[in-house]
């Protein structure tokens, strides 16, 4: 039923809550998991803090997984492109997820793209014969939901393939 599963992630707890479901689907159907991270152009606003890690690479510190990946950006001090840092972290983060899933016998593909998350998720799904998209949701409601919007909701509304949504645990 499922040969290719798309698992978009942004490093949030909501996205993390999906991983067990994706792992189970992959093992049940012998499906490949496509782990996708989307860098939003100019997402590096002034409120984002950059620091160097132990290896001297620039980091935003936004990902908090066990065995946190190291940025491979290698940028020199004073010439930091925040989008480049986010891309490097996204690549490291998706690889860390893929490594964990592969330890459980899942086949994975890691992808980092740039653009509007909902559009990139749907485009990737169409370009790669994805059978189902599995995404987390924060479960926001009211004014907060209306103001912030939801990438997951946009994908659910626009997708022509099934979208599995998992609500983040409190």
Number of strands: 7
Described by the principal axes of the CA atoms, the overall outline is globular
pLDDT < 50 stretches: 69-78
Quick one: biggest sheet?
A: 5 strands, parallel
Per DSSP, the total helix count is 6
- Name the helicity range: 25-40%
Structural classification? alpha/beta
On the 0-100 scale, what is the average pLDDT?
Answer: 80
Distance between the termini: 31 Å
Instruction: Note the beta-strand portion.
Output: 15-25%
The order of strands across the largest sheet is 5-2-1-6-7
Question: What is the H-and-E element order?
Answer: EHHEEEHEHEHHE
Q: What is the C-alpha radius of gyration, as a whole number of Å? A: 16 Å
Task: Give an overview in words.
This protein has 170 residues and is of the alpha/beta class. Helix content is 37%, strand content 21%. It contains six helices and seven strands; from the N terminus they run E-H-H-E-E-E-H-E-H-E-H-H-E. It has a five-stranded parallel sheet, sandwiched between helices. It has a two-stranded antiparallel ribbon with strand order 3-4. Helix 4 (117-127) packs across helix 6 (151-158). It starts with a strand and ends with a strand. Residues 69-78 have low confidence and may be disordered.
Write the layout of secondary structure elements.
Elements: E1 4-8, H1 13-16, H2 19-29, E2 32-39, E3 51-52, E4 58-59, H3 82-103, E5 107-114, H4 117-127, E6 132-137, H5 142-148, H6 151-158, E7 163-167
Parallel strand pairs: 1-2, 1-6, 2-5, 6-7
Antiparallel strand pairs: 3-4
Helix pairs in contact: 4-6
